[in-house]
Amino acid sequence: MTPSTVDQEQFDGFTRFLSDEWTGARPHSYQVPTKGRSSTWSKSLDPVGNWSTRGLKNAFEKYNWNGKTFSENKAELDNLALELQSAITASDNPKVNDTALAIMSWGGVNNKHRQRRTKKWLSDNNRCLSEKIKKAVSLLHNETEPLLPFDGTELIMNSAVTKIISLADPKNRLIIYDGRVGSALGHFASLYAREKLTSPLAPSLRFAVDTTHPKDGPMRRNPSDEIISFPRLFGSKKDKQHAEMMRLASKLIEQVAQKCGCSSREIEAGLFMWGYSVIDSANQR
Question: Where on the tree of life does the source sit, at the highest rank (predicted)?
């Protein structure tokens, strides 16, 4: 689908806006729960549980996942990417499956109940995983190719699979589009609309976001308000939409990274940290 003039103008404008946010000093903060899976991270913060940043680059510099820094996690991801891509090239489908499961474990998306559909898809396609994943990567690279194969049967896309496909990309262009990255992009798109636009935000910049967290809870990831509404990322029959978001965000972030002289993975990491919570009071909106 060819983008409209308005969509292209806003996409270009948002690319510049997000580039400025990378080097800017916009304040952002949130409380990390002292109990549950984030407790270790919370207790490492000073004051305890309070995470804050000044700008998107600073958020990247404060990256934390599984108690490890960006560099430590990148080393793990590089190894997993090498294993996965080598297995795909060799059409070693058992190895592809094992590495995909290892990626899910790294990403904390290996819950046997929540990821039942993903594991079933991997099992159902155990003889053709290499070809399936190569097809997914190829489709996401092609801006004009319809993403109809992401129908939940032929190809799937969700919070687990976006990590697998990202690491399967030999060009390192496809980013991990999860709930936190999507919510951060939605938040910045909302700020862009409020601060820079005199017309409504283009449909193409209404990023799908995580609406599973309560609006008034400690982790609000839905930047929708009375003016701008963002679609739901997770749920039944959201595979094609999730794939569309991954392709759009990858293109956007690649351009931002080029402007900022860094990698797409670094921009993604900054967004990931920012998007843990997009509560209004913390965002200085």
Answer: Bacteria
